[in-house]
Amino acid sequence: MLSYRIDEDLELAIPRIKDAEALYDAIASSRESLRRYLPWVDHVKQAEDEIASIQHDRQRFAADEGLDLLIWYQGQLAGKISFNGFDHLNEEADVGYWLAEAFRGQGLMTRSLDKMFEIGFEEYDLHRIVVRCATDNVGSNGVAKRTGMCLEGTQRKRLKLADGYHDQNEYALLRDEWKARQSN
């Protein structure tokens, strides 16, 4: 199993079929807050739905089309972070992430995104990593800012969510910026 240890409590790992129940439980426990920004949440109605999702994630990984990692904290599934897709021509990846409510406010996503920078820049030789999120998504914007990403702009009415269209912020971190931080 491919996994990345961040510290003794925090690990990122490729999802396995046997993780479907824990993944479903994490989503179900935070359904109301997650659905605000993640429209797919309403399609997850039972653990079996996550089996198909995990199979899809693993196929994307095998085809070098994405990298989906579960976030494990002290042995509990806390959330998910992903390279949602690779733009191989421009050496860029788009990152998406979510955490179950019980695990928010502890710096887990900030540390997980920092690890994704390391994976992206060192293992995938990316030039640029991007995070896009609704302007009113305080948590996701905060994570991008805390990891030192640059706010490059706001796209008006870019995201269609359950309650209508929302403006979207785009943050990016370049490999050179990340490397400069590593040497300090």
TrEMBL record:
<dbReference type="InterPro" id="IPR051908">
    <property type="entry name" value="Ribosomal_N-acetyltransferase"/>
</dbReference>
<feature type="domain" description="N-acetyltransferase">
    <location>
        <begin position="15"/>
        <end position="176"/>
    </location>
</feature>
<dbReference type="GO" id="GO:0008999">
    <property type="term" value="F:protein-N-terminal-alanine acetyltransferase activity"/>
</dbReference>
<protein>
    <submittedName>
        <fullName>GNAT family N-acetyltransferase</fullName>
    </submittedName>
</protein>
<dbReference type="GO" id="GO:0005737">
    <property type="term" value="C:cytoplasm"/>
</dbReference>
<keyword id="KW-0808">Transferase</keyword>
<dbReference type="InterPro" id="IPR016181">
    <property type="entry name" value="Acyl_CoA_acyltransferase"/>
</dbReference>
<dbReference type="Pfam" id="PF13302">
    <property type="entry name" value="Acetyltransf_3"/>
</dbReference>
<dbReference type="InterPro" id="IPR000182">
    <property type="entry name" value="GNAT_dom"/>
</dbReference>
<dbReference type="GO" id="GO:1990189">
    <property type="term" value="F:protein N-terminal-serine acetyltransferase activity"/>
</dbReference>
